Amino acid sequence: MSRPPETPQDEQDYFERRAALWWQADGPFWPLIGLNGLRIPYIIENTCTALGRPTHTHQPLQGLTVLDIGCGGGLASEALAQAGANVTGIDIVEANIRTAQAHAAASGANITYRTSDVHSMLAEGHSYDVVLTLEVVEHVADAAEHLRMAAQMVKPGGILVVATLNRTLRSYLTAILGAEYILRLLPRGTHHWRRFVKPAEVGHVLRTAGMTCTNSTGVKLNPLSKRFSFSHFQVVNYMMCWHKK
């Protein structure tokens, strides 16, 4: 009997229909384009801190291996490749990978893209200095299993960066009711509140996997300017960095 897909079919269908729109600044993925301005410096700074590397160089991630899980159209993958990393981007939606490959070819980025999932990559024995699961956890069928497998692919001394949505009343009111139904900042059906994950739940899984949280921060959106910024509050969006000794 074949194993069930890591990403539910409804989630795959959602992204399949929009796969050509990843790089459109005013398209359905504009929040992820905006988030890159926060999450890429966050990833670089935390990676360099964990691995004892200088941050203020032209390519601070030079020579490091990075796995971008659920890479979509390659927004984070390309930015990290520009910072010098050897990036592998995986996504279960083949159309997303085609979009990522086409954009990388046009921009001259050297990135390895594969239509694959965490389970398959782990089974092949891959490991990386940095593993990313950015705005992915809230789209998978089993968040705990996803996080456990991601943690297993982090090399000793490396880091896992998690960015996702908290399961709170506030996140339902803002990320779903407000963003999808009232302000229409996102297409309806982008998120399913029951799949959101609390920071404590992430922490329980990753500490059990032998990892230590070295940084966590909230992220907030100004709906008028559509700009993201860091926040002390993690009631909606949050990012965490986990280190493997």
Short description:
The chain is α/β, with parallel strands linked by helices. Helix content is 38%, strand content 24%.
Give an overview of the whole structure.
The protein is an alpha/beta fold and 245 residues long. The chain has a single domain (9-244), classed as 3-Layer(aba) Sandwich (Rossmann fold). 38% of the residues lie in helices and 24% in strands. It contains eight helices and eight strands, in the order ααβαβαβαβαβααβββ. The chain has an eight-stranded mixed sheet. A hairpin with a 4-residue loop joins strand 6 and strand 7 (227-231). Helix 6 (143-152) packs across helix 8. It is globular and about 45 Å long. The model has no long low-confidence stretch (mean pLDDT 96).
Number of strands: 8
If helices are DSSP runs of H or I spanning 4 or more residues, what is the number of helices?
Answer: 8
Q: Roughly how much helix do the residues carry, as a percent range?
A: 25-40%
Structure classification: alpha/beta
Oligomer: single chain
Topology:
Blueprint lengths: L8 H9 L12 H22 L13 E5 L5 H8 L3 E6 L2 H14 L4 E4 L2 H6 L4 E7 L8 H10 L1 E12 L3 H14 L16 H10 L2 E12 L4 E5 L5 E8 L1
Parallel strand pairs: 1-2, 1-4, 2-3, 4-5
Antiparallel strand pairs: 5-8, 6-7, 6-8
Helix pairs in contact: 2-3, 6-8
Give keywords:
38% helix, alpha/beta, globular, 8 strands, 245 residues
